[in-house]
Amino acid sequence: MVVSLSRRGAVEPFHAMDILAEANRLKAKGLPVVSMAVGQPSDPAPAGVREAATIALKAGRIGYTDALGLAGLRKAIAAHYGEHYGLDVSPERIAVTTGSSAAFNLAFLAMFDPGDRVAIAAPGYPAYRNIMAALGIDIAEIELDGAAYLHAEHLQAAHREKPLKGVLFASPANPTGAVIPAGDLEALVKTAQELGIAVISDEIYHRLAYAAPDTTALSFGADVTVINSFSKYYCMTGWRIGWMVLPQELVRPVERIAQSLYISPPELSQIAAIEAFKATAELEAVKARYAWNRELLIACRNSALRLPRRWTAPFTPSATSPGTPMTAWRLRAGCWPRRMWRRRPAAISIRCRAIARCAFPTPAATTTWSRRWRVSNAG
Predict the structure, then answer these.
(1) Cis amide prior to 172 (ω within 30 degrees)
(2) Structure pTM?
């Protein structure tokens, strides 16, 4: 037997998904498990979204769509940029994707070649690094060194060290929750433009900040690529539907790649997603519950966990203990059967700097902690 294995398959696992799989295996055995693996709302999709899907299913025909998505959904997304940000975005610049994950794949494939150097902030969303590594992209992880978010100066320093082809950042950020203020965001985008660095802005947590208005990187340049999704604010994780706003020059390259990689996003999810923009009242009620959790956590500011005075972002606050190593904490990969809560969890052996995040977006189980620490070899 001959089995060929490429080096791409040796990419680092997305550990959150491994933990989710383990939690699901335990659940399948009948164990009561509290899974803290992945970030998703506890509420279902809005009622209008589910109703639209039900009607479409009863109609009986769900098929392929254009690779860039249904015209109706692209128009609805473009209209959202006018209503929420005051921007005139043509529907022709919208690409509907199979979740934001497919959008990242398409952006990296359409914008960069193997060996191109692309900057990301550390800490950051692990899948950025994993996907780019699999594609042979040279990843420049910029250590923030106590800064809350990526600044123009970080980008300039990384570019001086070795020229960058692109930069990817998120605001609000995962996992720190940091929001880049509008002035600093503008400076970051303008600096990238001056240095000839392509910009990808991950805006998946927009509409979930509390003390600052949403500012899209599109406000500072039509050459920015924006990635967003219906997963977080719109409570549609399992529907696997997201979108990109592309510079006009990237529309056709992205379409060509999407045609062969994905054919099209799922039509049922597209039909339903059109209704998500009409569910603001329902979704703001969900967000209000998150705000309740946030206020409870901020009230603990004087406890052992010291929080920043201005925490504006969703789900996760950014704790202030940079440079202070903590004793290795033995975690059982994030999913504990209830009967194990009082036991010392089994070891996880990773030598890295890590973010611990536990978020419960319901009043019944409201504890949200984020702490940055250095994990020594616990194995």
Answers:
(1) yes
(2) 0.82
